[in-house]
Description:
Layout: H1 8-19, E1 24-30, E2 36-44, E3 53-62, E4 65-74
Parallel strand pairs: 2-4
Antiparallel strand pairs: 1-2, 3-4
Amino acid sequence: MDIKYDQKLIGLAKEVASLAPKTCMTEVTVYSTGTLELKISKFYGESLYGYNCNIKSESENVDGVKVVLTNYEYKKEDTKNE
């Protein structure tokens, strides 16, 4: 693959991992336009394979970084007996 990166990015990834909430998925994105985005996603309940869940998301701009917080909550299926 012809993608070059600075070794300092590995250190940055480790620092992000040490600062990120432990029960969440955290992503830092730098777009080619220079826009910075920090996404923190929290998953509740059972496995969310297939994304059968309720999603609540909010975002704000903090010091020039778009911060997106998203909660994924498992959607319980109706178990009505017919």
